[in-house]
Structure formats: C-alpha cells, structure tokens
Write a structure and sequence with these properties.
Shape: globular
Structural class: alpha/beta
CATH class of the largest domain: Alpha Beta
Bound molecules: flavin-adenine dinucleotide, iron/sulfur cluster
CATH topology of the largest domain: FAD/NAD(P)-binding domain
Number of domains: 3
Number of helices: 17
Strand content: 15-25%
Strand order of the largest sheet: 3-2-1-4-16
Radius of gyration: 23 Å
CATH architecture of the largest domain: 3-Layer(bba) Sandwich
Helix content: 25-40%
C-alpha cells in the first residue's frame, strides 16, 4: 500500500537509436525492493497459474524484499533454467494474473526476476565470466540427441545433462540459440546474455553441434542408431505468406529474412545487412511482436518512413468485460520500438503490390476493413471508398508462422502432424515414432519463450522417465496445457 508500481526508465530514443544495446536503464536496488514489497503473498497466488513455468513468485519477492539474493536466485532457478531470457523477453502472463491487478497496477514481477538473475551472474561468475556449472551427481551412460537449440531445446538439454545423460544439441544454423539468437534483436536481448548461459551448459557437459541440419547433412538414421532418445525442438519456422498480386517484386521479404542478418551484423559475422532499410519507405505487414522487432531494426537502419499495418482493429486501452482478470488482456500496447517512431495503421488490408520497370516494389494498394463476427466466425468487410496507395521500397511480412517445416527431419522420421500442422504428441511428449519426443513451438505451434522453456523441462522429465523408468525432474506442463481463458 506504500508503493506504486515502478519500472526502470528506457534510454532516450535519440540515444538508443544510435546503438543496438538493450533499451532499459539500470534499476536501483532500493526501488526494486519496494516493488518486491508490493507483493501480498496471496493465499492463492494467481501469478503461479499465469506462469507456465509455475514460478514461485511470492517466495522470491519476499526474499528480495529481505535482501536474501542468494536464496532468491535458488528459488528462481528451481522452476526456470533461463530467467535472464524470460526476465527480458516475456510478455509476463504472471503480471496479467497478479491478484493486485484486480484493482491496482500488478506487481513488477518480471523486473524482480531479471534483477535476481543479473545479481546472481554478477555475484557467482568465475574470473572468466562463467556461471558455475551444476554438475550431475551420476552418469547414466545413455545418449540423447536434441534437434534445435531454441529455448525449448536448450531447457530440455540442460535438464537431461544435469540428470546424467550425455546430451548433444544439433543446430542447423551457424550459432546456437534458435530465435533467441536469430530473430530477437539485440536491443531486446544482447547476445552476450545467451553466450554466458551457453558457457555454463558447455561446462556442465552439453555438447553443441552447429551447421548440423538433421535430415540434410546429418542423417536421421544416424541419430536413431547412435542415440537412446531424440528430442525434436525445431520450432515453428514455416512463415505465413501473403500471396497477392505483385508478391514476386524485389524488396518484399519475410521478417525472418530481414531480422537474422541484422543479428549477424551485430555479432560481427556480416559486414553489412544485405538489404538494409536505410533511407527507404518501409511497410511492415503484421501488427504483432515480430512486426515490432522489424520496426526497431528499421529505425536503427535509418529508414525514411515506416508504417506498420494490422488487419485487426486497434485494441482497447483497458480490459473489456469479456476479457476479465486473470486472463491475458488483449489491450493496446506500446513496445520500445513503437515509442521510437513509425505509424501504426489498424483495420487495413493490403490488396496488391505495385512494381517499377526493374521489378522492384514501388508501392502497395490497400483499403480499410470492418471486422464482423457471425456465429463465432470472424471476417473482414471492405469499407467502400477507403482505397489508398502507399509508396514503399521495402515491405516486411510479419504475419506469424503456420507451423514446423515438414521437409527434412519430420518427413524422414515419418512423424505424424495434428490438424493444426504441428507435431502430434502423447501426454508423455512422445511422437508416433519410437524413441522420438517433441517440445516447444514444433509441437505447440507459434508461442512464447516461457512456454518453450516449460515444454523443454517437461519433455526432459518424460525422456528421463522413459530411459530410466522413473524421474526426479520437474514437469510443470502437460502437452495440452493452454493459457487461462474464458469459456
Ligand atoms: C522475431 C521474433 C521475435 C520474438 N520475440 C519474442 C519475445 O520477445 N518474447 C517471447 O516470449 N517470444 C518471442 N517470440 C517467440 C519465441 O521466440 C518462440 O516461441 C520460441 O523461440 C520457440 O522456441 P523453440 O525452442 O520451440 O524454437 P526456436 O526458437 O524456433 O528454435 C528452433 C531451432 O531449431 C532449429 N532447427 C529446426 N530444424 C532443424 C533441423 N532439422 N536440424 C537442426 N536444427 C533445426 C532452428 O534452426 C532453430 O534454431 C518471438 C518470435 C519471433 C519470430
Ligand atoms: S498474485 Fe501478485 S500479489 Fe499475489 S503472490 Fe503473486 S505477485 Fe504477489
């Protein structure tokens, strides 16, 4: 009751646009302890339910309030392998379901989380900057292959390595990390944060193999022969396209063609972006987080103008009655990239792209739409007379992902997909192929880092049980678990 919700300030826009570093200023310890003090230690902590990991939030809020940082870190790691990722990147469903949120601003849970882990890294790192490894107390002599090194694959790998298995992570990209490495921009999470956790995993014994595309340069049969279990964690990488007239013009790219080279430039692996937004009029189609990442990246390239299109209407500023606490609020949000500029356009549909004589995109044609819902089915009606043309030399498609790529490892293993196009799995995270398990976006469909980590942890428990007949590993989720909703 004594303190208001407070968050760290963001660096000023003109300053942060000159670099790619994270946007937040440090937060004073005293302010953080005030934020932790706002937690009511609820008898029924709904924050636990909102968090797929089941994070022990009131426990570590109280430990931070008391200044017991070491125990707070211990409690944080008890449920989350990588709080430094979620503390920076999670949309925080825990905060949306915080009981305080009924009539006040919720507890700043994510801020407490990231500060516990950052202090932990500062206090515990060796002289070479590595978090001490948590070594297994026993080795089983059994081998597990993890295909894909995003948060799901990394969580599964760390849990299984610590349980004593010999784990090899196969990653087709040239660096480890999945979307944490190639996708999420540096200004949301600097890659040194990922590298220091990978150093701990290597010290624990997890083996990483990059440029290892299972189903292409690594034969599926080789994996089945050499490993006792396989965990598929290849993500939902098939992007939704926009097959309208003019899609073939040069200058129209998928978000995931645009974002990874920007990461590579920051890593020093590429001298310059192959198709920078510098000086261009850019349109981003898709109003979600991936679109916002394209926006922040285009700002830093120095785009002339940027429009972000969204077919849905502008969300309300506050929860509507049909979207009550503690469900995830579908409200208008302003990310750091939105704060930096660009124009957001809602209720708009793109009809076609127009090109110049050289086959480059020069404009797009669009119109406003009105959303209608009939018998629960949503559709969009054109608003007559609302047609417009917008000049642009670059278009970025950020309309989500339709599921995992089928060609390659999935087809060669012969795994079955469900009616949503994701890999089918049993309650024990098994696919239809003997010894092959699945977790993360590959089984769930496009989701969030926190769900991917929770899936990786739960899948690891299932693999451990399958290999040894029993397991001590925690399993926060069942494969069919879903965010809280209203029926
Ligand atoms: C641009 C972007 C920004 C995002 N920002 C956020 C955010 O801020 N917060 C948030 O919570 N979520 C965010 N998400 C969603 C989040 O990143 C994903 O839900 C999460 O990374 C899924 O984890 P995963 O481990 O299942 O898969 P991924 O992270 O997609 O990793 C899968 C990995 O498997 C590899 N792979 C695939 N097939 C093979 C093969 N045959 N052999 C070897 N390797 C293979 C891929 O190369 C990839 O590296 C974002 C998504 C995108 C696209
Ligand atoms: S719901 Fe909010 S106030 Fe209650 S225990 Fe969780 S963080 Fe604290």
């Amino acid at each position: 009751m004594k303190y208001e919700r407070e968050l760290p300030s963001r660096r000023s826009v003109p300053v942060r646009l000159r670099d790619w570093k994270e946007v937040y200023e440090p937060f004073p310890t005293e302010s953080l302890q005030h934020q932790a003090a706002r937690c009511m230690d609820c008898g029924i902590p709904f924050c636990h339910v909102g968090c797929p990991l089941g994070n022990l939030i009131p426990e570590w809020n109280d430990l931070v309030y008391r200044g017991d940082w070491a125990d707070a870190l211990d409690r944080l790691h008890a449920t989350n392998n990588f709080p430094e990722f979620t503390g920076r990147l999670c949309p925080a469903p825990c905060e949306a379901s915080c009981v305080l949120g009924i009539n006040e601003e919720p507890v700043a849970i994510k801020q407490v989380e990231v500060n516990i882990i950052e202090r932990g890294f500062d206090a515990l790192t060796d002289a070479d900057g590595t978090l001490p490894p948590v070594m297994p107390s026993t080795t089983t002599g059994l081998k597990v292959a993890v295909v894909g090194s995003g948060p799901a694959g990394l969580a599964a790998a760390q849990q299984l390595t610590r349980a004593g298995h010999a784990v090899t992570v196969f990653e087709r990209a040239d660096r480890i990390g999945g979307l944490l490495r190639y996708g999420i921009p540096e200004f949301k999470m600097e890659k040194r944060v990922l590298d220091r956790r990978l150093a701990q995993m290597e010290a624990e014994g997890t083996e990483f193999r990059v440029n290892a595309n299972v189903g292409e340069n690594i034969a599926v049969k080789e994996l089945q022969r050499d490993f006792d279990a396989i965990v598929l964690a290849g993500g939902a990488t098939a992007a939704r396209d926009l097959p309208i007239p003019g899609r073939e013009f040069t200058g129209i790219y998928q978000a995931m063609e645009f974002l990874p080279p920007a990461n590579k430039v920051q890593a020093g692996d590429l001298a310059e972006h192959p198709f920078s937004a510098a000086g261009k009029h850019v349109v981003i189609i898709g109003g979600g987080d991936t679109g916002a990442d394209c926006l922040g990246t285009s700002h830093r390239h120095g785009a002339a103008t940027i429009h972000q299109f969204e077919i849905m209407p502008r969300p309300p500023d506050a929860r509507p009655d049909a979207n009550p606490w503690p469900t995830w609020p579908m409200i208008y949000r302003t990310s750091s990239a939105h704060e930096e500029g660009g124009e957001r356009v809602f209720s708009v549909n793109t009809e076609c792209f127009l090109g110049d004589d050289d086959g480059n995109v020069r404009a797009l044609k669009a119109h406003e739409v009105e959303q209608t819902v009939t018998d629960g089915r949503m559709s969009f009606e054109k608003v007559e007379g609302s047609d417009f043309e917008l000049p642009c030399e670059m278009v970025l498609l950020a309309m989500g992902f339709v599921g995992p790529q089928r060609a390659g490892v999935l087809e060669q293993l012969g795994v079955e997909l469900n009616d949503r196009g994701n890999v089918s799995r049993t309650s024990e995270w098994r696919t239809n192929v003997d010894g092959v398990f699945v977790c993360g976006d590959m089984g769930r469909g496009q989701s969030l880092i926190v769900w991917a980590i929770a899936e990786g942890r739960s899948c690891a428990a299932a693999v451990d049980r399958a290999l040894l007949g029993e397991t001590d590993l925690p399993s926060p989720l069942t494969p069919d678990a879903a965010p809280m909703g209203v029926r």
